[in-house]
Each structure stands twice: as structure tokens, then as C-alpha cells.
Amino acid sequence: MSTGPGPESGPQVAPEPGPEPQPRSHADPADTGPAAPGGLFAWLRGRCLGRGAAVDPARDTFGAMTGLYGAIQPADSVSLSTRTHGAVFNLEYSPDGSVLTVACEQTEVLLFDPISSKHIKTLSEAHEDCVNNIRFLDNRLFATCSDDTTIALWDLRKLNTKVCTLHGHTSWVKNIEYDTNTRLLVTSGFDGNVIIWDTNRCTEDGCPHKKFFHTRFLMRMRLTPDCSKMLISTSSGYLLILHDLDLNKSLEVGSYPILRARRTTSSSDITSSGSSGPRAVGSPCHQNNSGPPSEKTLSRPSQREGGSPRNSLEVLTPEVPGERDRGNCITSLQLHPKGWATLLRCSSNTDDQEEGAPVRPVSPRCSLRLTHCIEEANVGRGYIKELCFSPDGRMISSPHGFGIRLLGFDAHCSELVDCLPREASPLREIRSLYSHNDVVLTTKFSPTHCQIASGCLSGRVSLYQPKF
């Protein structure tokens, strides 16, 4: 495209002398414009991904935080006032980082000040069975779920009693998500159900709820950061994605629109990780025609006016190197904070199967684009280990034996979009931290401070902070 007069534009007049142009600084936003190296399309792609100083000024801050993680060391073990809580199954910080909550095996929820490592409160009978997951709705309200099939809502300002108890699942409840746009709580359990709870109309007797989705072998359910998609992992090795998510629309079994041979429109990449198999990062490529493990045949979608159908279902089978001849259980599912990647932990189904048990046939299709992977031994077999992304998405914290490993996409902890390989590459181990005397089951980054927490099978919670 020409930006000046062409050869037939007539005589040209020399411009009048003026002040000489001043050199721009390196951080000048104009350097990222269409005339920058790479051209217009590179600039547009960078803008779409949130790249450049003019679009994402916090990138330098994230780089500084990553440098701090390189100096992180075991700092302290939180002082526990009880020894009856059992294993630590889940850790969750409040959004402002002021409270660390601990979900325990023996009915308890513990609350700590993560800065002083001091114990705040013990909810000794939070549930009647194992507490599996904790989710903050805001800085004061949080929800817990349990093997007693219930969900409980709590208020930090009044912890002597529950706000309410929610009944609706028929088996162990393992996962809680929250849509901040609609204020709908979303839970999933081993009964295969995803249930929606309307917290806008919450009373002491509970919240109005409805069954939103059902699939067999359900393990984990997550919402993307913008709540436009729901991802579900299963113990049979499938990854289900509901596109154009509408939580207000009631879905009945057999009514899910299904996508055929469609390339995922999400900008996210898929990361899978394994306890006895590899961890991997990839992007969804093709629809798996073998179908999801649902109870009934899925019907054809009804189209929205002028667009694709809401809640369209896509079924994927993650590619796991060295595991093509046997099925895999996707035990852990986490999403990149910017929606760029999904982190999976995959273990072979044969690890926990009885001898001679049937194994799910693997689809010959390559369902995902594998980008990164790493393998580790299945220490503490039978327990689900929860890993996580750092707040900026540059690092992964993963339970590893009696400690945790900090992993990056490259040795410099670069953004995923800055180091996306053409072929699958190993995740890089930044450092390993060991401070437990038992198998670590869960780990979590603080959303506001340079701090990591981990919890183990014997009930100890450790904190890690930079030391210079």
C-alpha cells in the first residue's frame, strides 16, 4: 500500500525546513504500530493477545515477579491449632490475598493469615465428610464442597455459622466455579452432574438450582476467565468443551449441540500434565467423532439467529506421548489466567485398574496440538494432585513427591505466546522446593504477593517466599 504520491502525481514540492525529528524512546507505543517490524498483521495479532506496552503495561511488573520466584525458598509452616484435620486436599487464597483457606480430609476448614502465618479460625465441622474444594465469590464470601454431597456458603465476617447449605448432588462434590457476570455458582461431582446455583436469590434454606449438564466419568470442571466456555475432564480421557456458554439456558440430556470437525475458535492452548504420564500443552485441533461418555445420543443443534448455537459441545482426546496404546484419566484441570492455555494432569488408567480391566480405545485422530510436556513418577498413587498457574501465567507450580516443582515454558519464564514451539517441547524445571515429610497433594500461588502455599497428605501446610 502506497502512503505517498505515486509516479504520476505531478511535480513534487520540497517540504519547508522544520525541526529535525527526535528519536523515540524504546518504550514509545508507536513502535508497536503497523509500521513496526512484522507488519500490520503481526501488530494486530499482538494487540489481540494483549501484547505491547500500550496494551498491557503490567508485563514489566509480571517480569519482575517472575524474577522474585527465582529466589523463592521455604519460608514457614503455618501454625496449626488442631491435629485432627487430616490430609490437605485444597488451598485457596481470597482475591485480595489476605486470607488462606485450607480444605481438609477430616471435615475441617482452616483459615490463616498468609503474611504472618498465624492461625485465624478453624471450622471444625464445616461438613460431615472430606472437604474437597474452596472457592471465593468475593473478598468475604466463599463456598466449600464435600464428599457429604453438599455445598456450604460462608461469610468471613460471621464464621460461627454457615450462610446456607446447598443440597442437589447425589455423590461426592469435587469442584466449584463462579461466574462473576451472572453471580451463578457452578458445581460438579462424581454423580456426573454440573449444577447451577442462583446466589442472587440465596436464603437460609439454600439457593434455587438446576441441573445444567451431565456426563459419565466426570472428574473436573472449569470456566474460562471470561466465562465464555466450560471445560470438563473425565476419567475416561475425554476433554469436553461447551462453547458460547449460556448458564441461564437449561440443558437436558440429549439436547447438547455437538460440533463436527470444527477447529476450536478459542485462543487458548491446551496443557496436559501427568502423574504417571506426561504434562503437555497443546491447542484443540479436531472434533473427536467417537463421542463423549454421555448417557444418550446427542442431538443436532438448534442454530441461533445469525450465529453459532449456544452451549455447543466439542469432544477432544488429549494427545499424551507414550500413552497412545492405553486410556488416560485426566485428574486435574486448570486454566491459564489469560485464557491462553489449559493445564491437565494425565495418568494412565491402568495404574489403578484391576488386572484384565478393559481400556478405552484411543481415537486415531490428533485431537490436540501438543506444545509442552513433562513426566513424573506417580508418587502417592490414588490421590488427586492439584497444580496451578502463577497469577501472570508464566509459571506452573506442581506437586512433586514430598515437595513442589516450579515449571516454565522456557528457561526464562517467558509468556507462552513468546515461546510457542512448532513441535512439542519439555516444560523447563525452574526449581524444586522440598519442605514436607509426606506426599504433597495441592499447591497455590498467592494472587497478590510473591508467595506459594502447599499442603501434604499428613496435613502440613508450607509457605514459600523469596529470600535474598
How is the main sheet built? Answer: 6 strands, mixed
Shape: globular
Distance between the termini: 54 Å
- How many helices? The count is 2
Mean pLDDT: 75
Task: List how many beta strands DSSP finds.
Answer: 30
Q: How helix-rich are the residues, as a percent range?
A: under 10%
Unreliably modeled segments: 1-18, 21-36, 260-278, 282-306, 351-367
Identify the notable features of this structure and list them briefly.
468 residues; mainly beta; 6-stranded mixed beta sheet; 2 helices; 30 strands; disordered N terminus
Written overview of the protein:
4% of the residues lie in helices and 37% in strands. The protein is mostly beta strands. A hairpin with a 4-residue loop joins strand 10 and strand 11.
Task: Give a topology summary.
Elements: H1 39-48, H2 59-69, E1 72-77, E2 88-93, E3 100-104, E4 109-113, E5 118-123, E6 131-136, E7 141-146, E8 150-155, E9 164-167, E10 173-179, E11 184-189, E12 193-198, E13 209-214, E14 218-223, E15 230-234, E16 239-243, E17 269-273, E18 278-284, E19 312-316, E20 328-335, E21 341-348, E22 368-375, E23 388-389, E24 395-400, E25 403-408, E26 425-426, E27 428-434, E28 440-445, E29 452-456, E30 461-466
Parallel strand pairs: 17-21, 22-26
Antiparallel strand pairs: 1-30, 2-3, 3-4, 4-5, 6-7, 7-8, 8-9, 10-11, 11-12, 12-13, 14-15, 15-16, 16-19, 17-18, 18-22, 20-21, 23-24, 24-25, 25-27, 28-29, 29-30
